[in-house]
Please model this.
Amino acid sequence: MRFKKILLKLSGESLAGSKKQGLDENCLLEYATQIKTVAGYGVQIGIVIGGGNIFRGLSGENKGFDRVKGDQMGMLATVINSLALQNALESVGVKTKVFTSFSIESIGERLSKQTVVDALNNGYVCILSGGTGNPYFSTDTASALRAIEIEADVFLKGTRVDGVYNADPEKFPDAVKYEKLTFTEVYEKSLKVMDLTSFTMCKENNMPVIVFNMDKPGNLEKVILNDNIGTIITN
Model:
């Protein structure tokens, strides 16, 4: 088996499925099924979910929201998505805990490295909600931070496309996919993988990143079992 401990980043938009906004129950169940399969191999799984299907702080600023309040609303959106995924995982028999980066005692346990690692060691899938707990940071940055904190083997970035391309494959059918990249190449080619803060954190802490299509059933298992899918980015 390729990895024993992973940090999986899921986009909020993906949880909306064909609805484009809010939550799609079928999508949640499909994700839960994929995660259950991988957990069955004994892989320790931490998950960070975006909130863009409910509210995105940066877009809120363009609509007149104060940036800090907008980001706080976005962080709360990630908590809603985390609870939805927890419900889906528990419905298929997966032990799951939600941790929050800020105190909401009745919702989830306050996030710390030790509490999360202890839960992972006890067989729980751990959903790490609330972003970093601070405004001005994306959930990609939160994912990089949590991957490093829990000492994951890899940061898996689940997207709607099957890797990193030299152009947007949804707009340019002739876009070329990269199988492997270094962090330096991503920077030099100005490829849109994640924001610069999260990118720098992964580079400086030698955290490999794999970008893959999470919306295709079975792909998460294939990544774990070392099938040649997605794009891997390393130093």
Notes: The longest helix spans residues 67-91. The chain has one domain: 5-234.
